[in-house]
Specification:
- With about 240 residues, this protein is of the alpha/beta class.
- It has a single domain (about 5-235), classed as Rossmann fold (3-Layer(aba) Sandwich).
- It contains eight helices and nine strands.
- The strands form two sheets. The protein has a seven-stranded mixed β-sheet with strand order 5-4-3-6-7-9-8, with helices on both faces. The protein has a two-stranded antiparallel sheet with strand order 1-2.
Length: about 240
């Protein structure tokens, strides 16, 4: 049985998928993730520290392409020699991104992080992406990202995290659910969304994420954003 999880999106228990929600995605995620638009501003600001004469930027899990399109507007072709690549395993997301895109420097491709073959990227972003990769494969994902970066390049990751202590997790979940209520989600929609994500999204603790990043090779790990259970981290190779 399919149940409403908000914004006319229906899912079954343990059946969350990004397929065919591309037209509703931007509206839904802005209401679902605290400071989502501010995170894009943070990514834009961080990019300034990794721009050189010839720069390659990669967005892993690009969804409808909003972040890369904003980056291309920040760095117009007449002033910058940049290449942008957005990858997402969901075909409908890539299709929507291509429709929205007006800049030929941006390439969108139906791929996952495990399909990355190229290297030489100066700046890589993964916003709410790695948490949907099975825990058994996350170290491999971080290894690929590290190898794909130039020395001195930056990797910005934003994730929903799990607190290490029960009381802290209770606070994180409670405040986050209050946020969703304030944005118009009903109790049933909040509960059904949680049910749909069972087995599809598994959050690490900040310590576990840091350990995976260090094992991949990152030594410079800088926490730059924190809101209860949500964290943004900049890693420099």
């Amino acid at each position: 049985m399919r149940n409403k999880v908000g914004d006319n999106i229906s899912m079954v228990t343990s059946g969350w998928t990004f397929n065919d929600i591309d037209k509703k995605f931007d509206r839904h995620i802005i209401k679902s993730v605290p400071f989502y638009l501010e995170l894009h501003k943070i990514a834009l600001k961080l990019s300034e520290f990794f721009i050189s004469d010839k720069t390659k930027i990669l967005d892993i899990g690009c969804s409808t392409g909003t972040l890369l399109i904003d980056l291309s507007k920040k760095y117009p072709k007449k002033n910058y020699n940049l290449e942008f690549l957005g990858i997402d395993p969901v075909q409908s997301m890539i299709k929507n991104a291509k429709i929205k895109n007006k800049d030929k420097r941006i390439k969108f491709s139906k791929k996952s992080v495990f399909d990355i073959k190229s290297s030489g990227f100066n700046f890589i972003t993964a916003i709410l992406t790695i948490q949907f990769i099975h825990p058994s494969k996350r170290q491999k994902a971080y290894n690929i990202i590290y190898k794909s970066l130039n020395v001195g390049g930056g990797f910005f990751i934003f994730e929903k995290t799990r607190a290490e202590y029960a009381k802290n997790e209770e606070i994180n979940v409670g405040v986050y659910n209050d946020f969703k209520r304030e944005n118009g989600f009903s109790e049933k929609e909040i509960n059904q969304k949680a049910l749909s994500l069972r087995g599809k999204m598994e959050c690490n603790s900040p310590y576990e994420n840091t350990l995976l990043l260090k094992n991949a090779g990152f030594k410079k790990i800088f926490k730059i954003f924190k809101w209860f259970g949500f964290e943004g981290v900049l890693c420099i190779k």
